[in-house]
Design a protein that fits this description.
The protein is of the alpha+beta class. Among the domains are: 197 residues, Rossmann fold (3-Layer(aba) Sandwich), CATH 3.40.50.300; 63 residues, Alpha-Beta Plaits. The chain is built from 13 helices and 18 strands. The strands form 5 sheets. A 6-stranded mixed beta sheet has the order 10-11-12-7-13-14, with helices on both faces. The structure holds adenosine-5'-diphosphate and magnesium ion. Magnesium ion binds next to helix 2.
Length: 376
Amino acid sequence: MITKTFACPECNTQISCQGNLGDKIKVVCPKCGKKGVAIFAVDKADLKTKTDSLSIEVAGLTKIYKNLKAVNNLSFNVRTGEIFGFLGPNGAGKTTTINMLCTLMKPTSGGAIVCNYDIIKHSLEVRKCIGLVFQDASLDDRLTARENLELHSRLYGVQKSERRKRIDEVLELVELSARADSIVRTFSGGMQRRLEIARGLIHYPKVLFLDEPTLGLDPQTRKHVWDYILKLKKEYKITIMMTTHYMEEADELCDRVAIIDHGKIIALGTPKKLKDNLGGDTIILDIPDDDVEKARKVFKKAKIFDSQVLLSVKNAGREIKKVLEKAKKNKIYVIEANIRKPTLNDVFLHLTGREIREGAANLRDELKRRRGMRGH
Ligand SMILES: Nc1ncnc2c1ncn2[C@@H]1O[C@H](COP(=O)(O)OP(=O)(O)O)[C@@H](O)[C@H]1O
Ligand SMILES: [Mg+2]
């Protein structure tokens, strides 16, 4: 008997069932009622029928570095053709997860099927099916854009007769054809990122992994990169798994988002559903430090951080008057009151009591350090 644990494709609830190799067992998710079949696969053909509509299937994926559980028993699925986001603060375990799914690193336990291949047993086949854009810059900046792509296409075994056409195609896709023969060192950060995306596509991957695709880019350039990512999904039907710590990025691009913290998925769903689950809008009251204790007693359900009171309400426009009256009656001085529609940051805040961007300061230092390293 084998015990198989997997995530419900609908609500990500972990489901376990037992069977023998070759068995196909009907399962019903205890949480959402979704019906499915668990296949105790014996060969690739079986895996194929099982995962036709899934490009990535992750079960119990775990990575332990010495004493640190960087990735802690993750189970989730990525559907073919979707943009699936991994959103979480710096150090949450996003890159480690990507590295395992791309076969650059072995899991401590658990595993995954990517493009119908097992990441541990069939790592070469997995590599042929995927493209990867690393978190850190990895172009050779002394070569031209075309030379970088040429080198990569050779490494990936793109046929000589195909190479030129394919390179022109991907350069056009990211609108860098005019700069094909310029040295990469002369490119802006955004152009380099676009070239890296082009490079990840050179061998026609079915699944593209993007690790922090817009890290360190200014907001305008970031938006530009988003357009290319959406184009890949729409026109080329590529499945994309991306990581980010920018909540707007996850919100804007991803069909579904897994929010990850300390190596664990703490929420998974469409951005809309995750935000809707919060129950509506947020009213934010800025109050003096001296009134914080009072506010804690008066607004029992509120989250209070520093001197900000955050209240989740169904309709902020309608309820703000009542809230302000309550504050006044209890002698809580309101310096400023604001209304905010929920963001994914609020979802994270609600679940963890922390903000995703708290890691931003460290990230800036980290980037500075890396840039320094690259200069040598
Ligand atoms: N090679 C390594 N050795 C030891 N610890 C590591 C290593 N790589 C990452 N970590 C640690 O694992 C955790 C997750 O890191 P990472 O996957 O890079 O997170 P993210 O990409 O979400 O920022 C962090 O605490 C990080 O310091
Ligand atoms: Mg990372």
